[in-house]
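# nightly structure sweep
# worker-07 picked up a monomer target from the shared queue
# config: single-sequence mode, recycle default, output format = structure tokens
# input follows
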Amino acid sequence: MSTLRLGLALPQYGPLANPAAIAGFAASAEALGYHSLWVGDRLLAPVDPSDRYPGGGTAERPYPPEFARFVDPFVALTAAAGATETVRLGSSTLSGPLYSPVLLARTATSLDLLSGGRLDLGLGLSWLRDEYTATGVPWRGRGARLDELIEVLRTLWTADPAGHRSARWEIPDALFELRPVQRPHPPVLVGGMSEGALRRVGRLADGWLPARLPAEVLRRMWAVVTEAAERAGRDPGTLRRVMRINPAPGAACASISDVAAQLAEAVAEGYREALVDLHYLAKDVEHALELANELRSAVRG
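# output follows
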């Protein structure tokens, strides 16, 4: 699978959530030959949650208990940026509508500069209404809010002076001399599996962040992305696809050999980028690195 650019989730939540261990993990992952390192975004683990985790939440276990311990994604990316030289650094995904566009643009620019132009900004909507309540952001209209956020980010990254005026945000025209290394701006990737999310990828994004599903399901979803891109006058062939695989005990993908098999299937389907989240398999950061080494060997073999 030499054509596959393989990434790992940084140790960010559950038993692996130790900010002091992130830099060492990132440097070791780069030395093992990983192409990218990724963070997620979880703000709350409510006692009585508004919604169940869409990845298998139940009434007794509405979300993975690991979510109660979660390192800030920007802290994790900053630690990784300072400890590495070549790996891409991405989010899969930030809960976009919860962020102020002007603050997010500044943070993303700073990370892109710190890393020498290695940032991939992945955005999504979050499935948990409680996070919107906690940050004072309306749940209704969140899709349109994410659309506008992407447009505002690109304006702030490229226009001079830059500003924005709408019912959601009033940003006075201002000078932004701090500019990303990547031109015209860091890639904006979008996660999600709904039709609205897929059409957003085609219309606005630089790529898609899908979770691993049966090949025929992903093909149907990609057809929606392709159609939306063509309708928007864009070339779907320029869009990236970064497959996410979340192995866990008792799941269909429960071991490193299962991950390797799923990665081989993804390559056969035309995917050239993937990331693996080892949080549910690893007991601690050291164990996560052992699994990462085992995975690299399995993929190379």
